[in-house]
Amino acid sequence: MTVRERTQCLEEQILSPYAAKSAASKGRQKPEEECPLRTCFQRDRDRIVHCKAFRRLKQKTQVFLSPEGDHYRTRLTHTVEVAQIARTIARALQLNEDLTEAIALGHDLGHTPFGHAGEYVLNKILPQGFHHYEQSVRVVQLLEEDGQGLNLTFEVLDGILNHKKGHTPQTQEGWVVQFSDRIAYMNHDIEDAIREGVLSADQLPPKVVQVLGNTKSERIKCLILDMVAHGVEQIGFSPKIEEQYLTLHRFMYQNVYVNPYAKKEESKVEKLLTELYEYFSANPEKMPWEYTEIYKKEGCERAVCDYIAGMSDEYAVRLFEKIFVPQKWDVF
Ligand code: MG
């Protein structure tokens, strides 16, 4: 018996009947020989951690654009927080922790530079629209590994595609990540907004504080405990907690997500990305070769949007400067 086979037996013994068992995975688009050590979901998690798009998350905006402070979230630290919350819930509900972790670590790989402001710009450009959850799937299926993709399992792809609220993942693990994303971003956005000075802790709605808790730690704990108590059959919050979560979401929307101070740089994002788009549409041969290949197969809009979507905030700014800002003479 291999180590993987032993793990698969353990999954059968330990996990809930509602869990996705690795031995019963619907598999990969291109069949592969099994690993002697790791289940298919462990392998998917490892492929995501080792891919280039994962490393680029460290320089992508979460909510606050390119913050100088060391303690603001980036897309990478957000992803790690989602994975932590999701694994805690998955283990408590006896779900497949490896599958949960793989979905969580991959869920935002398709995010554009500059957060939702970047997504908004690309959505206007692409005729079929641009959504980060679809782009995350495109990254792992096509853009990584020089156009070969990571060949992930069906369950991980489904969880990544359907991590956004309102979507319907096919596994309980996918549902856990969808809710963990909501728990993570709400609480770290509050913390970052207080750090930025656009919010003070005493502004939070009193009923929300009373039910969910006064600190980030208390609120995350309350939301996780509620999900675990709600059970594995239908993943979610109890009605009482969901109501307070939604109140908090509305509050954050009004006070932070559209706050003119927090969003003051966003109009520049549209200008910067639109200029880059027009430049590379006119000069597609200036893109890295993997995108010129997409240009030949799928056309200009798709190729340039893939290129721009993959950029980190820093990369987009440096590229813009290189193309459009006069460079100083280097006299030495
Ligand atoms: Mg997310």
Commentary on this structure:
By secondary structure, the protein is mainly α. It has 16 helices and no strands. The chain is globular. The mean pLDDT is 94. Bound molecules: magnesium ion.
Architecture blueprint of SSEs:
Layout lengths: L2 H12 L25 H11 L1 H5 L18 H18 L4 H10 L8 H11 L6 H16 L6 H8 L10 H25 L9 H7 L3 H15 L8 H19 L8 H17 L6 H10 L1 H11 L2 H12 L8
Helical content band = 55-70%
How confident is the prediction overall: mean pLDDT? 94
Q: Number of DSSP strands?
A: 0
Coarse shape: globular
Q: Compute the gyration radius: what is it?
A: 21 Å
Strand content: under 5%
What is the straight-line distance between the termini? 66 Å
Structural class: mainly alpha
The kinds of small molecule bound in this structure are: magnesium ion
Number of helices: 16
Order of helices and strands: HHHHHHHHHHHHHHHH
Low-confidence stretches: none
Please outline the major beta sheet.
none
